[in-house]
């Protein structure tokens, strides 16, 4: 497969790492799914000290327990997950890795990898990095139609900024203004693949390698003072 894309998502116990749920979908620009994978990280998911402090700890009972019972998800060691990621990238000739706010996911993966005793990098070959959040803000959300929709429906932060998270971008892209994001890794990948598909359809320039730049600022009508134009680095 030429130019396959791997869109991934992680759920973490904190803002720095401790990934406990990871998933990815390998797909084409048109959204055709070639492969998918999802697993709980056994070292972290079975560690009560880590999981009870997780932001979405309640999902242990509302989401993951039923998923495990229905055998919709399994647990695997981090080393097994990393090997599967590497082999999927090789097998499908993945040229681009994407995620919504990819800087966060790549840091979380790298920090988890290191915390679990590994010194090498997760990604061992060269791939393009694409932040779907950046792309969506540049290609889909920076319009009066989106801003007016946000204001009409209350998708506005206490500071008065229109919201640009994946849940709101997906609502706008598919026209389902009541959609609620699951915040489980594979289900979040599904909505991110659709957002990315619609971004590709715009034919606008693809912002490869552009992440950690607070893209929400692009969508606000007036420039935000003190904006930093900083490129992050992939360390996973």
Blueprint (SSEs and pairs):
Blueprint: E1 4-12, E2 19-27, E3 33-41, H1 42-45, H2 48-51, H3 59-69, E4 75-76, H4 78-91, E5 94-99, H5 102-115, E6 128-131, H6 132-141, H7 144-153, H8 166-174, H9 185-201, H10 216-219
Parallel strand pairs: 1-5, 3-4, 5-6
Antiparallel strand pairs: 1-2, 2-3
Written description of the protein model:
- By secondary structure, the chain is an alpha/beta fold.
- It has one domain: 2-Layer Sandwich (Nucleotidyltransferase, domain 5), CATH 3.30.420.
- It has 10 helices and 6 strands.
- It has helices spanning 42-45, 48-51, 59-69, 78-91, 102-115, 132-141, 144-153, 166-174, 185-201, 216-219, and strands at residues 4-12, 19-27, 33-41, 75-76, 94-99, 128-131.
- Strand 5 (94-99), helix 5 and strand 6 form a beta-alpha-beta unit.
- The longest helix is centred in the C-terminal third of the chain and has 17 residues, at 185-201.
Head-to-tail CA distance between termini:
24 Å
Query: What is Rg?
Result: 18 Å
Strand arrangement, largest sheet?
4-3-2-1-5-6
* Count of discrete alpha- or pi-helical segments spanning 4 or more residues: 10
| CATH architecture assignment name | 2-Layer Sandwich
Topology as a string of helices (H) and strands (E): EEEHHHEHEHEHHHHH
Helix content: 40-55%
CATH topology: Nucleotidyltransferase, domain 5
- In total, the number of strands is 6
CATH class: Alpha Beta
When the domains are counted, the total is: 1
Characterize the biggest β-sheet: 6 strands, mixed
Q: How much of the residues is beta strand, in percent?
A: 15-25%
C-alpha geometry: globular
CATH homologous superfamily (4th level) name: Ribonuclease H-like superfamily/Ribonuclease H
Q: Overall mean pLDDT score?
A: 91
Which class of secondary structure composition applies to the elements? alpha/beta
Low-confidence stretches: 223-236
């Amino acid at each position: 497969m030429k130019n396959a894309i791997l869109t991934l998502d992680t759920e973490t116990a904190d803002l720095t790492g401790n990934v406990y749920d990871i998933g990815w979908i390998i797909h084409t620009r048109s959204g055709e799914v070639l492969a998918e994978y999802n697993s709980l990280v056994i070292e972290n998911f079975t560690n009560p000290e880590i999981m009870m402090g997780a932001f979405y700890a309640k999902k242990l009972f509302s989401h993951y327990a039923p998923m495990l019972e229905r055998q919709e998800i399994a647990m695997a060691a981090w080393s097994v997950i990393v090997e599967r990621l590497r082999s999927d990238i090789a097998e499908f000739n993945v040229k681009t890795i994407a995620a919504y706010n990819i800087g966060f996911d790549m840091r979380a993966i790298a920090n988890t990898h290191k915390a679990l005793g590994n010194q090498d990098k997760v990604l061992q070959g060269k791939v393009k990095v694409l932040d779907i959040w950046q792309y969506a803000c540049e290609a889909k959300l920076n319009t009066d139609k989106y801003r007016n929709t946000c204001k009409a429906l209350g998708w506005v932060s206490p500071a008065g900024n229109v919201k640009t998270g994946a849940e709101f971008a997906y609502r706008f892209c598919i026209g389902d203004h009541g959609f609620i994001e699951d915040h489980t890794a594979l289900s979040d990948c599904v909505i991110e693949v659709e957002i990315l598909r619609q971004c590709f359809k715009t034919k606008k320039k693809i912002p490869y390698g552009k992440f950690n730049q607070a893209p929400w600022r692009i969508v606000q009508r007036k420039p935000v003072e003190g904006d930093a134009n900083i490129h992050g680095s992939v360390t996973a």
